[in-house]
Amino acid sequence: MSKKVTDANSILGVARRAHDVPRPQASQSHTTTSPQEHTTVTAQETAPPERRVNVAIRASTHKALKLLAVQQDRTVQDLVDELAQAYLSQQRPS
User: How many domains does the chain have?
Assistant: First the structure.
């Protein structure tokens, strides 16, 4: 039995392809006046900071969320965020 040799190019190839996948980015405004002066970068004021979360849900729940999102011309992310906010507001003590 021969030992499989893994070269760095095959390992790095996966990392490069993963790097090429577009990721959602918060909108930012960039202001530059000249190369000698410093650059000011500010996050868009209306966009709160976000965290990426992986959760496992039933396939039927996911399908229902996708269908509802399409019907309402929204994203599943928007629906889940809205549902989580509504649930959390109900759980807070009065």
Answer: 1
